[in-house]
Design a protein that fits this description.
By secondary structure, the protein is of the alpha/beta class. It has two domains: about 270 residues, Rossmann fold (3-Layer(aba) Sandwich); about 80 residues, formyl-coa transferase, domain 3 (2-Layer Sandwich), CATH 3.30.1540.10. The protein contains 17 helices and 14 strands. The strands form four sheets. A seven-stranded mixed beta sheet has the order 8-7-6-1-2-5-14, sandwiched between helices.
Length: about 400
C-alpha cells in the first residue's frame, strides 16, 4: 500500500478473522506498517459490527477500535467463487490470520496444506480458544472461559471467600492477538533467512497461562496455588492501591529502599522499627496489619498531594485513573496514544495510537476501520481482477462493494 510507513511496510496480510483475538493480531501488524486486508463474510460481516451499544452513526464503536488501519472486503466464503477469490489473494500474500473453529478453514478449502502448495512461503497464523492440538482443540474460544481455565480468575478479585472475578479487559483475547503477531514476525524473520513459510499456532488459553508467571512460580516452588489479593502483589509489600482523602493511589514500595522512602513521605519513621515490617518477608506476612496503618496516613491528603510527595522522593506512585482520565493524561497525549482518523461514514473519530515506537521506521495510525466492503473494488483490482469480473461478483452477490 503506497505511502505506508513502518518496519512491516510492504508485507501483505489477509485477515480471515472476526470478533477480537484475530483482529487484534491484524491490528498489531497494521500499526507496524503491514497492508492488512480484512476479509469479512457475506452476509453481515464481522459479528463485532453488531456489538452495540455504543454505536456512532450506526457503526459499532468496538469494531471501529479493533479494525482501524485495515482495508476491508466482503466475500461470500461459502460460495466456490468466493473461496477462489480468497485463494487468489493468498497466492500473493505473506501472511494469513484465522481464528475460526478447527475444521472451518478446511471446509472452505483454505487449509494450510492446500494453500502452501500455491504459496510455500505463506505464514499461516491460527488463533483459537485452546490451540489446534490437545483434548480441547475442538472447543470454541471465549475470553471469559479462558480466563477461568488458565487460572487468572483464581488470582483476580478482592480476596479469599469472594466470588471469582475476571480481569476487566478481555485480556486473553488481546494477549493472544499480540502473541500471534509476535509469532508471525518471528516466522517472517525465519522466512527471510530460508524462504520457508510455516504455521503459527497460539490460543486464548495459553495467553491466559502466560499471565500467571509470578503465581505459577509460587505454585511450583511451594505446591500451593496462590489466591486473589486485590491490587496487592504476591511477592512484594506494600505494592498496591491505598485509599486517599479523595480517591486511590498505587504505591510501589517493592524493595527496602522504596519502603524507607514511603515512611519518609508519610512521616512515620516508627514503622521502620516495628519488627512486623522490618523486611519484605515480614511485611508480606503482616500485610493485613500494615495496610490499615498506611491508610490512616494516606487519608490525610489527596491523591495529587501524595503523588507529588512520593515522586519528589523517587518513590514509584500513580493515581488510579478512569479510562476517560487516562485519555486526557498528558503522558498519554505526549506518546500519541490518542489520535484521530477520518472514517468514511462517521467522520473524524478518536482511536488509540500505536503502542510501539521506532526511531527509523515509525508506524502510524492512518486509516479508520472500513465499512462493510469499503475496499472490495480497490483490493481486487490490486490483485489482478478485471473490472468485468468484479462487477459480475457484485451482481451474483459473491462480494459486497460499498
Amino acid at each position: 500500500m503506497s505511502g505506508t510507513t513502518g518496519p512491516l511496510a510492504g508485507v501483505k496480510v489477509i485477515e480471515l478473522a472476526h470478533i477480537m483475538a484475530g483482529p487484534v493480531c491484524g491490528l498489531m501488524l497494521a500499526d507496524l506498517g503491514a497492508d492488512v486486508i480484512k476479509v469479512e463474510k457475506v452476509p453481515g460481516g464481522d459479528d463485532a459490527r453488531r456489538f452495540v451499544p455504543p454505536a456512532v452513526d450506526g457503526e459499532a464503536a468496538s469494531f471501529m477500535m479493533v479494525n482501524r488501519n485495515k482495508r476491508g472486503i466482503a466475500v461470500d466464503l461459502k460460495s466456490p467463487e468466493g473461496q477462489e477469490i480468497v485463494r487468489r489473494l493468498l497466492k500473493d500474500a505473506d501472511v494469513v490470520i484465522e481464528n475460526y473453529r478447527r475444521g472451518t478453514m478446511e471446509r472452505l478449502g483454505l487449509s494450510y496444506e492446500s494453500l502452501r502448495a500455491d504459496n510455500p512461503g505463506l505464514i499461516y497464523c491460527e488463533i483459537s480458544g485452546f490451540g489446534r492440538s490437545g483434548p480441547y482443540a475442538d472447543r470454541g474460544g471465549f475470553d471469559l472461559i479462558a480466563q477461568g481455565m488458565s487460572g487468572l480468575m483464581s488470582i483476580t478479585g478482592e480476596g479469599p471467600g469472594r466470588p471469582p472475578v475476571k480481569v476487566g479487559a478481555p485480556v486473553t483475547d488481546i494477549t493472544a492477538g499480540i502473541l500471534g503477531a509476535l509469532g508471525i514476525v518471528s516466522a517472517y524473520t525465519h522466512r527471510l533467512k530460508t524462504g520457508e513459510g510455516q504455521k503459527v499456532d497460539t490460543s486464548l488459553f495459553e495467553a491466559g497461562i502466560t499471565h500467571t508467571l509470578w503465581q505459577s512460580a509460587i505454585a511450583f516452588a511451594t505446591g500451593v496455588s496462590p489466591g486473589p489479593q486485590g491490587s496487592a502483589h504476591p511477592l512484594n509489600a506494600p505494592y498496591q492501591a491505598l485509599r486517599t482523602k479523595d480517591g486511590w493511589i498505587n504505591i510501589g514500595a517493592a524493595n527496602q529502599a522504596n519502603w524507607m522512602k514511603l515512611l519518609e513521605a508519610i512521616e512515620a519513621p516508627e514503622l521502620a522499627e516495628d519488627p512486623r515490617f522490618k523486611d519484605n518477608a515480614t511485611r508480606m506476612e503482616n500485610l493485613d496489619a500494615l495496610v490499615p496503618l498506611l491508610e490512616d496516613h494516606m487519608l490525610q491528603r489527596t491523591t495529587e498531594e501524595w503523588v507529588e510527595r512520593c515522586q519528589a522522593r523517587g518513590l514509584p506512585t500513580g493515581p488510579v485513573l478512569s479510562v476517560g482520565e487516562m485519555h486526557s493524561d498528558p503522558q498519554t497525549l505526549a506518546r500519541d496514544m490518542v489520535v484521530e482518523v477520518e472514517h468514511s461514514r462517521v467522520g473524524r473519530q478518536k482511536t488509540l495510537g500505536a503502542p510501539i515506537k521506532f526511531s527509523e521506521t515509525p508506524g502510524a495510525v492512518h486509516r479508520a476501520a472500513p465499512i462493510l466492503g469499503e475496499h472490495s473494488r480497490e483490493v481486487l483490482t490490486g490483485f489482478g481482477f478485471s473490472e468485468a469480473e468484479i462487477e459480475a461478483f457484485i451482481q451474483r452477490k459473491v462480494i459486497v462493494a460499498s
